[in-house]
Design brief:
Helix content: 55-70%
Low-confidence stretches: 196-201
Strand order of the largest sheet: 1-2-3-4
Distance between the termini: 60 Å
Structural class: alpha+beta
Radius of gyration: 35 Å
Order of helices and strands: HHHHHEEEEH
Mean pLDDT: 77
Strand content: 5-15%
Number of domains: 2
Shape: rod-shaped
Amino acid sequence: MGNRKGTLYNFGVSLFKRLTGIYPDRFRRQFAGEIFDVLRQKLEGASTSGGLAIPACILHETTALMASIIREHWHDRWGGRDVGMVEEKRLYREIDKIFLRRRLKSAMKVTFALAGIIVLLNSCSYLYAGIQIAQVKHWGVYPTLEEAVYGVHSINNSDAKVMRIDINHIEPCFSGGEYPFVMCVTSKVFDDHTPTVPSDKNSSVKSAYFHLEEGWVFMPEGNTRFTARVVELLGMQATDE
């Protein structure tokens, strides 16, 4: 990649050198060196950006440079040879304005592209959260938090019969009163396969539950905060608390 950048940079320098050399003699002697220095500095700036910045710079600056060369030859041929320094400087400023306008247009395109990507990513995230909420509702909606804990563990332990569930602790998942409809429950499940001697198999499990308008649902591990934000944004949480 470094060799490619060096090749493109050298090509641009050589191209700009040759193009500024075909200005009319009068203009070339006074301004060609200065124009070439400005173009080389812009090319060096593009080389630090990477990607397509160098070829884009070469294309844009070459187009404007060719327009300037044609204008100067026309001026030299039909406008007389007594064009003063003030007029020449004005033309040079016009060239620089052309370059500036092109850079601004490129920057606006990049800005709009990034804004579109951000909107698309947010839309996909909200869509994913909506699908997740619909999925947990399909798994089961329960009138109380305790019933939700029992029902979820019963489903997850389909190969064994749940005999008892000890709910050790219930607390809000978020501090400061943020998303009060989200509760974290620490519980221990005992089924008919539970050994007499306690083991790590029956260690406590902490899970999140959402209190929606329809009832309590289990929310699997993931971005719980973002899902809670979507629930609140859509007004899907229970309002009786």
